[in-house]
Write a structure and sequence with these properties.
Layout (H helix, E strand, L loop, with lengths): L2 H7 L4 H7 L33 H14 L1 H14 L5 E4 L3 H6 L6 H17 L11 H15 L1 E9 L2 E8 L12 E3 L4 E3 L4 E3 L2 E3 L5 E7 L5 E5 L9 E5 L18 H23 L2 E5 L10 H7 L38 E5 L8 H16 L3 H5 L6 H40 L8 H7 L2 H8 L1 E4 L8 H12 L11 H7 L5 H17 L4 H12 L1
Antiparallel strand pairs: 1-13, 2-3, 2-10, 4-5, 5-6, 6-7, 7-8, 8-9, 11-12
Helix pairs in contact: 3-4, 3-8, 4-7, 4-10, 8-10
Length: 532
């Protein structure tokens, strides 16, 4: 047999064929597919690249604030908790940093002087550019506008030896038309300084906000620089929510649930309207197959229409003297009705109201969650058990402190930095080494002086005794006699005013008691008599 014929008789197994063949087979095909998050085509839907319409979002958000009581409730409750009657300054210069720079500071004297002057300044209208409201009201307006509009422009101004603040609604920040100090280079609007202008915010090549363009008239714009000659921020934005890193404008907090909130409001109005209309028709008459179709209220209708008039000849009237000509007998007035054959008088009932809460409540919780406030806190409804209520309050406490911290840094702190420097320059407070640090550009010393905390009312404990005992257990036996708080902290937690002022007032009252020769025994006698 020839070699050619022998080769034809050779059998090759399938694995050998797969290993030796250069062509792809059904066993080793590899498909390269671009993954965009969708495992099954069409299940997620088309990809959308949103171009944010800041003006439309701002208008819709304010519309919901006016039309939806739920939206207004969560916005107002959020501002009440975060800002309240204004955050309190707690000056805390970093002495260790100052000592490392060979600066000796009387921190107690510094703190007392700064805090007392700040308290008087912000409790008056001196901090307001329009000289109309206190600084606490300015802070509350800034918070409300930032979370509803998405952003608000804060402008610090120096006039007549003092600094003031002005709030400008985000709707006035817009890119000016060509010819108003700007030009269009085919891609972006550019100012005469060579910086890009995006949505009214002028930024340099590093992304730093250089200026803000405020529309003051039909074709008029004012360019407000962000940083003054001293290096202080004189104008800056406070945001509610940022979209992407390169975004210069903010978003309303409720942007994601605007449609839900709007439909929820329409559903509530429709349900209430339906219930109101159903309540006007209290009874219906149903007729069976053997019914004559007679109307049981026919006699009353005939009397109201003038038939079978009473002896006086007048139409019957109700207790208010109104004619019942077009009214159907709706109230029976302890009467019994002789129904026609195979007829029944039934009460008209609607089941829509029964299921109202099943739909309305979960969506309210969704809106509250978007604003990051627990429904129990927003609705002021604490009807859960102790553990659930405590968990909700502790979660809200963490959220509250975080929100308060970042708002304080973006609003209070920047204004305080400017105010503090003016106090030092005017020799109202002694700050060794501060002016030298300004001249040499030592920012570490400057920031050490500026360091401060901003505190507001704390979330109250459901059971303060349980909370205190739990902390005692954590301290162990070695710390059983250590104080868990201070007089100042206790006064703040009870909203009892200022601890130092309370001590001074109490000392004065004790002196007056001594002058009037009121002893502790006399006080006890007076107390016992009052008890009796």
């Amino acid at each position: 047999m020839s070699k050619k014929k022998d080769k034809k008789r050779v059998k090759v197994s399938a694995p050998a064929l797969m290993a030796s063949s250069p062509e792809p087979t059904a066993y080793n095909n590899v498909w390269s597919v671009s993954f965009d998050g969708e495992k099954n085509i069409g299940n997620i839907g088309p990809i959308k690249k949103y171009i944010v319409d800041h003006e439309a979002l701002r208008l819709r958000s304010w519309q919901l604030f006016l039309e939806s009581e739920i939206c207004q409730l969560v916005f107002q409750r959020s501002s009440t908790w975060v800002i309240g009657s204004g955050l309190k300054l707690q000056a805390e210069p970093q002495t260790e940093v100052l000592e490392s720079e060979d600066i000796d500071l009387d921190i107690e004297a510094f703190n007392r002087r700064i805090e007392s002057r700040w308290k008087v300044y912000t409790r008056s209208t001196m901090a307001d550019y329009a000289d109309m409201v206190t600084h606490a009201e300015i802070a509350k307006q800034a918070w409300i506008n930032s979370i509803i509009s998405g952003d608000v422009l804060i402008v610090n101004r120096y006039e007549n030896g003092q600094v003031t603040q002005q709030l400008i609604d985000g709707c006035h920040i817009s890119t000016p038309l060509v010819g108003n100090g700007t030009q269009f280079n085919g891609f972006d609007f550019v100012s005469s300084f060579g910086n890009r202008i995006k949505h009214g915010v002028e930024v340099d090549e590093r992304g730093t906000h250089v200026a803000y363009w405020v529309k003051t008239g039909l074709m008029k714009y004012e360019r407000i620089i962000a940083r003054g000659k001293s290096g202080h921020l004189m104008a800056y934005m406070v945001y509610g929510l940022k979209y992407r890193l390169d975004s210069v404008r903010g978003l309303p907090l409720i942007a994601a649930v605007m449609e839900t909130a709007s439909k929820l409001e329409r559903y509530k109005e429709a349900t209430l309207g339906s219930a109101e209309e159903a309540a006007k028709v209290a009874f219906i008459t149903t007729h069976g197959p053997a019914s004559t179709g007679e109307n049981p209220a026919l006699k009353g209708l005939m009397s109201a229409s003038g038939f079978n008039k009473p002896a006086s000849g007048d139409n019957p009237v109700d207790v208010n003297g109104k004619y019942v000509l077009n009214q159907v007998q709706a109230t029976l007035g302890k009467q019994s009705i002789n129904m026609p054959i195979d007829s029944k008088l039934e009460v008209l009932e609607s089941e829509k109201e029964i299921h109202f809460a099943d739909f309305y409540t979960p969506n309210i919780h969704l809106v509250c969650a978007t604003i990051e406030i627990p429904p129990e806190v927003a609705l002021q409804k604490y009807d859960s058990n102790f553990s659930s209520s405590r968990a909700a309050l502790k979660d809200w406490e963490h959220t509250l402190l975080t929100k308060r911290h970042y708002f304080a840094l973006s609003f209070y702190q920047l204004f305080y930095n400017l105010w503090l420097e003016l106090e030092i320059l005017n020799n109202k407070v002694q700050a060794p080494g501060y002016l030298m640090a300004r001249q040499s550009g030592n920012r570490l010393i400057i920031e050490a002086y500026r360091y401060a905390r901003w505190i507001g009312p704390n979330v109250p404990h459901i059971d303060p005794l349980k909370e205190a005992n739990a902390e005692r257990v954590k301290l162990g036996a070695a710390g059983k006699d250590l104080p868990l708080t201070t007089l100042e902290a206790s006064t703040e937690s009870l909203n009892g005013g200022d601890a130092i002022s309370n001590i001074r007032q109490y000392a004065k009252e004790l002196e007056e008691a001594k002058k009037m020769k009121i002893t502790s025994a006399q006080k006890q006698t007076i107390k016992e008599k009052a008890t009796d």
